[in-house]
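Sample intake sheet
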Amino acid sequence: MAKSKNHTNHNQNRKAHRNGIKKPKKFRHESTLGVSINYKYSNVITRFLKVHNIISNET
């Protein structure tokens, strides 16, 4: 009995490039779904401090 074919990549590269290999779309804001609530909260506070120039560099 003849051995069976194990692997071939024939035509796959051509098929992939017919419509172009596209990069995933980059969104303006990444989703925070599933992110720790403490991280989200600290992120909001630091954004507020940056906007209002209240960063604690004063001693």
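Comment: The mean pLDDT is 87. The CA atoms of residues 24 and 53 lie 36 Å apart.
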